[in-house]
Amino acid sequence: MNKFTSFKSIMNFIFCIDTVKSHLCSRQSLWLVEKICLPQRLTVNWERWRLVCLIMLFLLPDFFSEKIAVGARFDDYEIRVIRPRYFSKRKKFELGLSGSVVTNQTFIYTYLGSLNVTYHFTEQFALELAGAYGFSIDKDDKRILDDDFSIKTQIIRTQYLMEGSVLYTPIYGKYQLASGRLIYFDTFFALGAGISGVDYNYEQCLPPEDQANPDSTDEIPAPQVYQYPTITFGVGQKYFINKRDGIKWEVRDHYFTYDRQDGGCPGEPSEKNPQHNMTLQVGYSRFF
Known about the structure:
alpha+beta
């Protein structure tokens, strides 16, 4: 084979490859053609390889056309790791039961049981109505102050809560357990308003005979409950057991202002004070 013939064969080979490249979009088909068209030794019959390349030019496009068409259908779509939601909450009611504790009180423990009804307008927004009622238990610190030092303190005892909140759910996702099971969850924020009922028992007040002024006739007020307008803000997560049942936790701040005179002894001056009740809530809910 002379130099001219070798040059001609090489040009024909290049023409074969360029032609195939211009007609095929698949990398797999191009690799296969080049694998066939590219001889390992220059002593082979180049005309035979050129003929093989031309045959592959007409056969391979039909073989890969289906794969190319399928891939083209998804060119305008973004592939995401998180798939669609576990189920749709839109236009569904949710009924929940939960227990909560006020976490930032110094001298007492306050426990509340609550019932809430939620309507989901969309996947992101919902309206919740909630009511809670509870009781308080004195801590040892309060008993020590009273028994050992005769120090009595005014206590803010939250007896009930009635609130309405807007829920916003911007995040949803899933966990995979070691067993392979997937746990789906939502993360939500709550903003609302309502009423806090505070129970005053005036146990810090002294009877008239024990007061500093012996001529005082001020009686200890009878226990009563005051209501205060409240603003609430919270964040929490809901874990789905199945498409109807879920378990949730939530942390909320219930903010209101009260007059110290409301729970004070006779003669107590009027003084406005802010109050933050931080609650940790855990509960169960069902969708309808």
